[in-house]
Structures are given as C-alpha cells and as structure tokens.
Amino acid sequence: MIDAVGLRKVYRLKDREVHALDGVDLHVRQGEIYGVVGQSGAGKSTLLRCVNLLERPTGGTVAVDGAELTSLSGARLRAARRGIGMVHQHFALLSSRTVAANVAFPLEIAGASRGERRRRVGELLELVGLADKAKAYPAQLSGGQKQRVGIARALASRPKVLLSDEATSALDPQTTESILELLRDLNRELDLTILLITHEMDVIKRICDSAAIMESGVLQESGAVLDLLARPGSLLARSLFPLPATEAPDVVALTYTRQFDEPLMSQLTRKFDVDVNVLGGAVETVSRSSVGRLNVQIQGANRDAALDYLVDKGLLVEVPA
Fold first, then answer.
1. Homologous superfamily of the 2-229 domain (CATH)
2. Taking the model in full, what pTM does it have?
3. Which of 92, 96, 189, 298 is the one with CA 20 to 30 A from 207?
4. What pLDDT digit, counting tens, does each position of 71-98 carry?
5. Can you list the positions of beta strands (E) in the chain?
C-alpha cells in the first residue's frame, strides 16, 4: 500500500546541509499497522510528510495504493492525497467551528453536498464515539476527545491510508490506551492501512504489526514485530525487552513468540544434566500475540548443548553483557 524507495530529504541552511532522510526504503502492506519509532530529530516526521508529499523528497520515489505521488503535481496530486488521511499530534482543530463542522471541513473542500456532509459526519462521529458532541466546540473537549475529532476528520474522504504523527504523545496513559484501541478497531473494521510514528515503544508493542527503528534519517532495522523479537541482536527486541542487569553467572534471557506444550525446562535438566534456576519472567501481548520472556540461570558441563537445544526449539537465547 505504501512503497517508498531511496527517500532522501536535504534541508539547505545558510552554512550547511541537514540530511533529514538518507536513502530510506519503506514498504507497508495493505491493512497493517506499521510503526516507525525513534528519538526526536531522527527524521520520523519528515518521513511521514514525504509519504503524502507535504514535503517533496530531494530524491527517491513514493507510491501509495499504486500511484507514484512523486511524479504527480497540482490537481492530480491533490486527488491522490484524498486517499490519505492524517492525524496530528496537537489535533489541529479549527477553534471557531463545532465538532461536526471540523469533521465536515474536508468534505466542503471536496465539494460534497450539504446532505452528503451531514450523513457522513454523523457516521464518523458515531464511529469514534462522539455522536453526542456534534455541536460542541474544541475548547469544550478533553484531549482524547479532540484527537477523536481529528481521527474522524482524517477519515472523512474514506481514505485507504491513515498517517499518524505522534497522535498519542500529548495524552495521558489512560487516554492513550483508548486512542490506540480506536486505531486498532478502525484498522480491522475499515481494512485501513495505518502508518504511525512515535517515540514510545509501548505504542509499537500495543498495536503494530510491523515496525522500524529510525536514527539520523536512516532505518536501522525493519520488519514484522514478532520476527524482529525472534531475531538475534534486534534493536527492537532489546528496547521492548531489555536484558537483565545481573552479576549472577551463567544467566540467559529466553524470548519465545509461540506457546509450548512441552515442559522445556524440565527437559533440559533431564536431557543435559544441567541445573536450571528461573530468576524471573513475564508474558506480554505484543502485536496481538503472546510473547514470553524468561531470565534463567543454567549451569553444568553440558550448558552449551542445552542452549543449542533451546535455539533449535525456536527460542531466542541471549547472554547479558
């Protein structure tokens, strides 16, 4: 649905050039939620704005739903952009307009009739849970309600792609949870492809199917979240599940992305004559799947063979530095 190849964006200042994007390849499948995570200044917002050509890339190409946007301009580009909705960090609502009028604004620009606008606004406010706020003004809403209005407005033209620019970073944890749940529901109900940027790993963990880590204008790694969690040396895995800080000898961190019916720890002790001491663990929901994490101490002459056995079983085995 989104196919960006070799994206470059250079800002030319008085005395230097700033390379905000440096050869970024981004591929987002239809119907998935794809998260780009990174610190401030990593280039995330620039990437998002290049996807819908609010910023025109210095180099590279962007295609959305089969249309190469970088080859379009004028009316053709504006028409293509109607298939892309955008949600902003600080809501960007028109304070002098009611909730209904804010949601209707893109439809007015597109030339929709008054009756069509009324019907569509009603549908959207029902969809985001604000049917009773149609006549309210932004100043009368909470932060979460404002963001729901922003989401409704972004969906007004029935886009296939939704871009989210730090949509939850200005919200409290409970409200963040409700907005993430709304985005996941919209993704399922509307078969909506969502590309979101964030600096919060918990957002990636909660709703993303695929993810990329961005640093200094470059994607350091990317892929399906569960695949990255099972990849040795993955930056995303280390961020979501930091290795334990311990001075105990022979400790390993085990990560598994599927359930096991067999008692692996008991098998280790019998099969390899090793001592296994479970120091801690947890099971979390990541990308709609259960991911387990165990910190264990494994000691004995056959320790290396026992670790190889766990790897063969599909566990990610990491040794804290």
1. P-loop containing nucleotide triphosphate hydrolases (3.40.50.300)
2. 0.89
3. 92
4. 999 999 988 998 999 998 888 899 999 9
5. 2-12, 17-28, 33-37, 59-64, 67-68, 84-87, 161-165, 193-198, 210-215, 218-224, 251-256, 275-286, 289-299, 316-318
